[in-house]
Design a protein that fits this description.
Shape: elongated
Distance between the termini: 88 Å
Structural class: mainly beta
Low-confidence stretches: 1-27, 155-168
Order of helices and strands: HEEEEEEEEEEEEEEEEEEEEEHH
Largest sheet: 5 strands, mixed
Helix content: 10-25%
Amino acid sequence: MKKKNILLTLFLFVSVLMLNTVKSYANEFGFAVEPQIPENQIDKSKTYYDLQLDPGQTQQLSVHLVNDTDNPVKVEATIKSATTNSNVVVEYGPNKLKADKSLKYNLADYAKMPNTIDIPAKSTLDVPIDVTMPSENFDGVMAGGITFKEIKKDNKTADSSNDKGLAIQNEYSYVVALLLRENTNEVAPNLKLHTVKASQVNARNVILANVQNDQATYINQVAIDAQITEKGKSKVLYKKSAENLQIAPNTNFDFPVPLNGKSLKAGTYHLKMIVNGNQLAEGQFVRTGEDKKEVHYSNQWILEKDFTIKAETAKKLNAKDVSIKKDYTWLYILIGILLLLLVIILIWVIRRRKKKNDEEAEKVE
């Protein structure tokens, strides 16, 4: 997946919610979504919710669902806390990523709305979202998203194609980000490195480094430089650099360092990650980007950890890696030995036959 900077264009999917394009998307999706931005929106130019409320305060938000089609539409609505995926991109919709242990206030516990919504044909429906803030004072942000997805009656109604048994069904959904905070106090970000282990992504060997942001704040314009060496040695075996990333508040992610077709070998290794975040012209930390230009950051973390790969683990993962070129040296050696034996046998047979013929010739004389 292509990495993108998501602070200024904070929510990739939310771009479909711009009011001047609602009609065109309604035709593609079967319905359209129009968030109604309230007065306590921190930045009213944003098309997602970024609200400031008092501790314990309740508020009802409203979303317009528009159905311009000639048929009724049934929509499923879900609310989920924001997560960070392995591409170091923030996700606001449903996924299989587990909530981080540092997440004290899960947005799904503080924002409620109907699970299913029926929108009659050629109509607009206002859907309420009831928000209740935690009673305690806290700094930082509760981040998450509201996903609206059309419930199809059967596969025939979905946008799909079928060619010689290969079926592809496209499903569309709107994701509206929802950020809640009690103040705009700055929260210092913090990263921790937890487990480092050998694993696989898309049937290819990688080293996974689990990194945690245990604070209720985004880390934006993130750049990661990771390298792996044998413990006690300086030669870099594997490395990966990535930039224009973003980490959600109170989340963790598994950053993969690929082996690029190389086999895992048992041993003890050392991972070093340099993570820069939050670009700032006067930032004290400097990194040269992919465009060869220097970029200044206000935050930097140097994360290091030793880890061990067992022989059994390496053998198991190598056997499943589709990118590893199989070593058939043993087969070539075996074939060579067999050919050599065949030649020796042929020479022996020829000599034996010649000797026999010579002996028979001598008897005749």
